[in-house]
Amino acid sequence: MATFKTLNWSTLDTWAIVTGRGVVPLLSEDHHAAGGWLQQHNYEMLHLDFTSGISRLVGQLGTLLGWSSQFGVGHELHPESRNLDALRDGFTFKVPEQGGLALTLQGFEQAWSEDQRWSAGFLSIISEFSLQQLALGRRFFAVIEVANPSSVLVGAQFEIRSIGHPFQRRPEAF
Questions:
Q1: pTM here?
Q2: Using an 8 Å Cβ cutoff, are 90 and 67 in contact?
């Protein structure tokens, strides 16, 4: 089943998922209107606020991602954790088949200035999950609220692609 019936480059979701690879900046002044558009198009929204720093948000992510139920008691995602591999392992959201799921990231400029390596890795995880959902016929992306077009985030690099390892042929593959 196709995720999009047509590629309408003037819609937020097409632009975010296809052009932005699951990540799109949006001016603060357009944030409210975008939220209305997302609701009108059956998107669920999760708001992540980075204005109090990465550690506080990582603790909230542990709750949102159901960390204890995924990995058991004693394997909680601690607020001070900057382990991107662990975050990638547990990064899963239930994405509705109709509409989709959009994360809204507020104050991400602060996270970027606090820990650019972690922030870039976090965006990479979002991008990877967006691609996985696209392959499953679902829509998932993140909207990064930026104050102005000259934000440090606009044009910032968060992922470099390379050619991977050769596909390992198995009898059922082809």
A1: 0.91
A2: yes
